[in-house]
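Handout, section 4.2: multi-component inputs.
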Amino acid sequence: MEKIKIGIYGYGNLGKGVEIALKNNSDMELVGVFTRRDPDSIETIFDDTKVYSAKEINNMKGKIDVMVLCGGSATDLPVQTPEIASMFNVVDSFDNHANIEKHFNNVNQVSKENNTLALISCGWDPGLFSLNRALFEAVLPNGTNYVFYGRGLSQGHSDAIRRIKGVKKAVQYTVPYEESVKKVKNGEDPQFSSVREVMWRECFVVLEEEADSSKIEKEIKEMPNYFEPYNTEVHFISEEEFNKNHIGMPHGGFVLRSGKTGENTKQIAEFSLNLESNPEFTASVLVAYARAVYKLSKEGKTGALTVLDIPIAYLTNKTQKELLNSTL
Amino acid sequence: MEKIKIGIYGYGNLGKGVEIALKNNSDMELVGVFTRRDPDSIETIFDDTKVYSAKEINNMKGKIDVMVLCGGSATDLPVQTPEIASMFNVVDSFDNHANIEKHFNNVNQVSKENNTLALISCGWDPGLFSLNRALFEAVLPNGTNYVFYGRGLSQGHSDAIRRIKGVKKAVQYTVPYEESVKKVKNGEDPQFSSVREVMWRECFVVLEEEADSSKIEKEIKEMPNYFEPYNTEVHFISEEEFNKNHIGMPHGGFVLRSGKTGENTKQIAEFSLNLESNPEFTASVLVAYARAVYKLSKEGKTGALTVLDIPIAYLTNKTQKELLNSTL
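Output:
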C-alpha cells in the first residue's frame, strides 16, 4: 500500500517531534523537512531525513499529501498556514485561542479556493482538550468545566525570567495546587476567586557570576501578569544541576466536567494528560490528524476544519472491521 | 426553532435516564415512551410524559426524529434495533462486545434499505471509552492500553447473588485495587498476570430469615466465573441499611494509555468517569448522540454508525462560531 507522504514545515522542537512521531506510524513517510534557515545548517534527529529550503515547496506540489506546519502561533502560522494551504493539505497547531475564528476564516477561504484541506488548532489545547470540552458539555449540559495545567514547563514564563539581567538559564513550571485539584476531582464544585488558588509557579534559575540573587528573586516575583498574580517559588541552582534535571519539556493537565443528570445525581468526566515531552506529544497528535486530513481530502473534502469536525475513526489506520471487533 | 423529536423505546432504568436527560436539552422534546407492558401500568418520572403501547410505533412514522432504544443487549436489541431501524432513525446501547460487528451489519442493511440512520453501541463502554481507545492508539501507537472499572455496581453479579437460595437482596460492587491503579497512573506499565490483581468484588447481602450466612458466603465466593477468579468480600447487612445505602447505581472507571513517543519519552493519556448513576449517564450520552444522528440524517446519511464515525461537533447544539470562540 502506498504510504501517506508528509512534509514538515519549520524545524524547532515541534518539527523534531513530528520527525520522531512518523517513525511510530508505518503507513506514513517523511518526504522532508522545510526550513527558512540554511538547510546545510540543520541537524536532523534521523540521518535519513531530507532537508530542503522553504523556498523549494513550490516544486513539491503533488509530492506531499499533508504538510505539517510547525511554526509558532504569534507570527508564523497566521501567515504560513494560508500561504501553504494554497498549495498543500495542511495541519497546524495555532493556539492563540482569541484569534482562532479569524485564523479559521482566513485559512478556510484559501483552502476552498485551492481545493485543499486544512486542519487548524490541532494539538492538545487547543486540540484534544477542545474535543473533550465539547463532548463533556454535550453529554452533561448541566455542569461546570474545570481546566488545570501542569505540572508543566511554561515556555513564555521561562523566557520572561531569562530576559532578566543576571540570569543565565531558567525554567518555570506551572504547578496546580493538590488541594484544589482534589476538590475538583471529588466533585465539590469549588469556585476559585483567583488564579492564586489554582496554581503556583516554580522557577529554577542559574545565575551569571556576581548576580544578586535576592534582587533577581524579587524582580521575578513582582513581574506583572507573569508572576505577580501567583505564588511563586524561586530556586537558584548550579548549571550542572540545571543541565541534568531541567532540559526536558514536561507538561500535562486535565479537563474535567462536574455535572448533574437528575436533580441530585453527580457525574464527573475527566480527560487528562501526563507528558514527559510536550512537543513530542503535540507532534504525535498532529501526525494522527494528518492521517485524517489525508483520508478526508481523498474523499474530496476541502476548506478549514478543527478537531471537532473529524470522526475519530479517521485518525486510526485500522479497518472498520478491526475497529468493530477490537476497539469498540 | 423546531425541536428534535425523541421517542424512548423500553422503559427501565435507561429509559428513565433518557426521560431525565431530555430535560437538560432545550433543543429536544420527548414525544413519548413506548412500552411492551400495559401503558396504564407505567409510572413515568415526569407527569407530562406520554406513554404508548409499543404496538403503536407504526403510527408514529414521521412524528419522531430519533428513537432511543432502551432495551437490553442480550435479547432485546438484536431484534429491536433492526426492526425499529426499518421505520426510524435510532440510537442503541448494544454492549455485547463480541457481537458488535454482527449487530452492526444487521442494522446497517436494514437502515440502508429504509433510508434511516442507526447509531449502535453508544454509551460509555462501548461508547466514550471506545472513542478514547481509538484516539489514544492513534496518537500513541507505541504503547499499552489499560481499562479499569469501578468502583461500581455490577448488575450481572448482583443478579447472580440474588439467585442464591436464602438471599433476599444483594448488590455487588467491582472495586479496582488502589495499588494497581497507582502503578498504571504512574506509568509503570505493570503486567497483570490475573484479574485477581486488578480488581476485587464487594458484596452486600440481605438474608431471608433463617438463612445460613456462612453457607451463602461460601456459595458466593466459589461461584465459577462470577466470583471464584476474584478476591471477594461478603457483608451481611440489614434490609434497612441496604435500602439506605445500596439502591443507587454508581459506576465509573478509566481508559488509560501509557505510550512512548521518542525512545524514552513516556506519555500518558487518560479518560475517566466517576458516576453516581450509571443509567442516567449512559442515557445522557445516548441523548447527545441522538442530536448527532438527527443532524446527520438531515444531511442524508443512512446506514449504521458507531461513535467512532461521528464528529464531536455534531453532538453539541452550539454553532460553529460559538465552538471556534468558546470551546476550542
